[in-house]
Sequence to fold (123 residues):
Amino acid sequence: MSNYTVEELQQMLNDKLAAEATGSQLSMLDTFLDSVTAANDCESQKVKSNGIIVGNILKSSSENKQYIEQRHYINEMEDGAIVGRAVSYISYTTGSYSDSLTMPSLLVVGERIKNRTVLKGSS
Fold:
């Protein structure tokens, strides 16, 4: 076993704590999104398709940034018919304020069978 001085152990602890703190910092995407939404001039627009929210557009001219939030849906099926939709995941597209980004649209990435059968409980 190695012998360490108190100072060396303290330095190793400080290095470990600094590494952990760095790992918990926001990602570049989170920082980008936060800068747009926190701006005083943030413009927000919901995008719908047939009454379904398919995404959002957020812009800030003072930050010279914008991003598009695209929702990806799963169709919920019953007897071959769509009875609902659920958000599976969200993707983001980023750019400068004046960039022309692709508008969100209804994106279906899968389906699942909805089973509304009520099971009889035991008495």
Notes: Residues 29-113 form one domain.
